[in-house]
């Protein structure tokens, strides 16, 4: 019987090591959820009223904006985004709220607009190359294509006519 207990201890140890490895393996595949930007408090956002609040009261209620518009009216933007990713994959936006507070010329709140995830632009690159306009040249064209082009007419070197006069019409 003592030999049986020795094997059962060894078996229990193997089971414990196997379970811990399995738990570590599944924890590496858990979803990672991160939040970026402004923490939206619905009660505070709803308290900002057009015609009643001004820049100072909005800053006192919501805090400093994420960014201010650079052109036109000085709109304030509060951006909040929740991202989710799986282990080492690229994060994807799950929720997004962009709060835009528009002010009139006197500095009073004119409107409060909310935009969500529908405003996120989805860009999918095509392949591993950036498409460009122009001519397509091979490696040999790139290496040997400029041989003899130095000083060719119209290239800024020798050749080509010169204007010998002093004025714009050669006079």
TrEMBL record:
PROSITE patterns associated with the record: PROKAR_LIPOPROTEIN
Any one Gene Ontology cellular component term annotated for this protein: outer membrane
Keywords: Membrane, Signal
Pfam families per record: BamE
Keyword DNA damage: no
Protein's UniProt keywords contain Signal: yes
Domain of life assignment: Bacteria
InterPro entries: BamE-like (IPR037873), BamE_dom (IPR007450)
Residues of the Outer membrane protein assembly factor BamE domain: 37-111
Record's protein name: Outer membrane protein assembly factor BamE
Organism in which the protein naturally occurs: Sphingobium amiense
């Amino acid at each position: 019987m003592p030999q049986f207990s020795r094997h059962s201890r060894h078996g229990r140890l193997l089971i414990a090591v196997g379970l811990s490895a399995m738990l570590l393996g599944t924890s590496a595949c858990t979803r990672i959820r991160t939040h970026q930007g402004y923490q939206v408090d619905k009660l505070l956002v709803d308290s900002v009223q057009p015609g009643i609040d001004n820049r100072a009261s909005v800053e006192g209620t919501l805090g400093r904006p994420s960014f201010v518009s650079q052109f036109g009216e000085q709109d304030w933007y509060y951006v909040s985004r929740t991202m989710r990713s799986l282990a080492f994959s690229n994060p994807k936006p799950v929720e997004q709220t962009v709060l835009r507070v528009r002010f009139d010329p006197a500095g009073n709140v004119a409107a409060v607009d909310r935009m969500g995830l529908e405003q996120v632009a989805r860009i999918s690159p095509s392949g591993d190359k950036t498409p460009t306009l122009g001519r397509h040249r091979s490696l040999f064209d790139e290496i040997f294509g400029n041989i003899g082009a130095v000083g060719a007419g119209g290239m800024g070197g020798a050749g080509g006519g010169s204007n010998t006069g002093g004025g714009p019409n050669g006079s």
